[in-house]
Amino acid sequence: MKKLKYYTFMGIIFVIILGTLSHFLYDWSGQQQIIGFFTPVNESIWEHMKLLFFPMLLYKLFMVYHFGKDYPCVVSSLCFGILTGTFSIPLLFYTYTFFLGKDIFILDILIFVFSVILAFLLSYKYTLSCGWNSYTLLFICLVCILFISFIVFTYYPPNLKLFEDPTTAKFS
Known about the structure:
This protein is mainly alpha-helical. The protein has six helices and no strands. It has helices spanning 2-28, 33-36, 45-67, 74-100, 105-129, 136-155. The longest helix is centred in the first third of the chain and has 27 residues, at 2-28. The protein is globular.
């Protein structure tokens, strides 16, 4: 259990660092389309959800490889954590901007960090308790749907607020 706790903490650090670097990777790559599938291509909330989703998905593969035999619930709990953390970003962003009427950069950063910590803490808790193991297939399917959605909606976004750049959108 100590080892799982350590690697959960390291996952938080890994995702925060890689997610932060991912914010700039698309521009650093010369705006290569393949990089844009996995990193933000604009400032929309949807694109910023990738900052948590893809680094945590990558770390999930590492965790499943190293802990899958000892912790049979690691797959379901990590999928649950990925989904919860990813969707907490727009939920928290739109909640605070609704009340404040504006976007505050430091709050955006804090939301990202909070969402990463939340995702890993829930993953850790449910890895130990096996609370979501009966939903493993559902969670895997939802992660796959979100993965495909990120790929498709990167360059073909629907006309919804989630896909708008908040620096140019009006808050209401």
